[in-house]
Amino acid sequence: MTDLPDKTTAFMDWYLAVVEAANLTDKRYPVKGLNVWTAYGFRARRNLDAVLVREIEATGSEAVEFPALIPATEFAKEKEHIKGFDAEVYWVTKGGLSDLDVPLVLRPTSETAMYPVFALWIRSHRDLPLNVYQIVNSFRYETKTTRPFVRVREIHFFEEHTCQANEAHATERVRSNLGAFRKMADAFALPYLAIRRPDWDKFPGAFYTVALDSPLGGARTLQLGSIHHYRENFSRPYAIQYEAADGSQQFVHQTTFGLSERLLGAIVAVHGDAKGAVFSSAIAPYQVVVIPILGSDVGEAPLRVAEDVAARLRRHGYRAHLDAGDDRPGAKFYRWEQAGVPLRLEVGRREAEARSATSVDRLGTKGRVALDRLEGEVADRLAEFDRALRARADAAFAASFSVARSLAELAGSTRVRIVAWCGSEACGHQIESGIDGALLGTPEDALPIDPGAPGPCIGCGGTESTRWALAGQPL
Ligand SMILES: [Zn+2]
């Protein structure tokens, strides 16, 4: 048992230590950036995916799956897109001993795999909208230092691709995705901001990009995912057309929505603390761990009661784990706290006699659960825990932002900064060098603090079309 590094002063060391201590991944695989999912980490990922599937399907999206290999000829059709991904793709150039006639790209994202097929699927306005998603592994040759979940080369990727009849419908789909993401983030108790990226930082080939960013302490931010409006930028090169009601041929307008295991990284980074990981009940690999307090003088009763408690909770759909191993209770408490389990139930001799369990949630709130009301009381404890976790994250979120009134004020920022910006790229780059990070863009919704009306642009002093923007240091 060793203490974790300090989250505030040694954030990345702390993050890596928490991922390790919670046993979410095994970092010893011989290729950097390719993740080995442990059984415990895989449970978290599966729970995360279940939330994404539930919320995206509630908006009428259907699951599909496309091949992982894309012919170079299709990959090359949209010029901005290939320019954006050229340096990041893995190539498959051989089949056995022979060179392939057409080299294949291992998908970095699936536009160029899907869109030639969409062109075959869509014929008439009756085929629209087309809203489909897949959850697949995609690959990008990341050249910066890889980090578990947040910067990887094999990405566990959720990608929704849609085709709409016109620009307004595509804009509406972006709004719908934002609504779905709000519900996903609520399940993870994650505060975030939807931010429209500046033009120079949008997805390659997009008309615009809305990113979903969470602050991670200091000026650090993590992009959790992104939603893109493509207009006709892909439908023209891929000839995705439909016959409108008036008989004319029209190109579809497209959108995409991308998420990944970065969400898991964000959950660890935002909720984790000096004791380790913390998971909301929706994603927790185990929601409840049941620990019998055994000793030479207590007999079998606590173990029998603990077994019964775990079995009853599982029958009622909870992810409950019985830890009846030989370790001392203190070592078990420590281990499951590090692993982020929301609720611990302890059953000792006194509890067994009183038909109860002592409950301790991951934020330290203690109570007693009567076994004849076990399922209802556990539901209440988990709901209370989720609310407290969200409140703690919201307080940290609100404290993560402050206004910078000049470029000079950006130096050494210990918050994500809110700045007045005229919208020009030149001023944007000045802001970026001021904070030694990125101009994240303009918020889609209200800012987390109310800074009043924006003054003159902190780059050029201009007042024309000045708006609030956010600047930070993306991880
Ligand atoms: Zn300016």
Task: Give a description of the structure.
The protein is an alpha+beta fold and 475 residues long. It folds into three domains: 11-271, Bira Bifunctional Protein, Domain 2 (BirA Bifunctional Protein, domain 2, 2-Layer Sandwich), CATH 3.30.930.10; 288-384, Anticodon-binding domain (Rossmann fold), CATH 3.40.50; 401-474, Translation Initiation Factor IF3 (2-Layer Sandwich). 31% of the residues lie in helices and 27% in strands. The protein is built from twelve helices and 23 strands. It has helices at residues 11-21, 39-57, 72-75, 79-85, 111-121, 167-187, 262-271, 301-315, 329-338, 349-353, 374-398, 425-435, and strands at 25-26, 36-37, 62-63, 69-71, 90-95, 98-106, 130-139, 154-164, 193-196, 208-215, 220-231, 241-243, 249-251, 253-260, 288-292, 320-322, 343-347, 356-361, 366-370, 401-403, 416-421, 438-443, 467-474. The strands form five sheets. The protein has a five-stranded mixed barrel with strand order 9-10-11-23-22. Strand 10 (208-215) and strand 11 form a beta hairpin. The longest helix is centred in the last third of the chain and has 25 residues, at 374-398. The mean pLDDT is 96. Bound molecules: zinc ion (ZN). Zinc ion is lined by residues 422, 424, 427, 457, 459-460, 462. Residues 422, 424, 427, 457, 459-460, 462 line the site of zinc ion (ZN).
